[in-house]
Amino acid sequence: MEQKINLPVFMLICVMLSSCARKEWVSKRDAENSIRIAAMSSCMYEGFGGTKSGINKDASFALAMDMVLESYGLGKRDTLTALAKEFARNIRPPQHADYAQGKPIIRSCHEFYHSKTLDSLIRSWRKERFHYK
Fold it and tell me: CATH number of the domain that 72 lies in?
């Protein structure tokens, strides 16, 4: 006797199985590096004036933010972006007259990358992380 496959039932089973598949897990180091890169990129984006600067053509920011979003969720991404914006707004021109026309944006954002503020944020998020290897 020949058996026929019920196509809608078969497709439903396939969809259910694929949705149950385990997400690709990210190493702790990669996830935490993504936080740092996203924070520094966001700081530079704000420091250079956002879309006006052309920095939005660099995909580093989007890639790092996607990993933060996938690993930690929307609220964490927004928190990180707000923290970086606040840091970028507080970058002041140097006191030396030769440099008065500009701000040390890259240097300041690099300092933010290594800051105790960002370290503290990463430590607090580490406990909530559920996709680590």
Answer: 1.20.120.1620
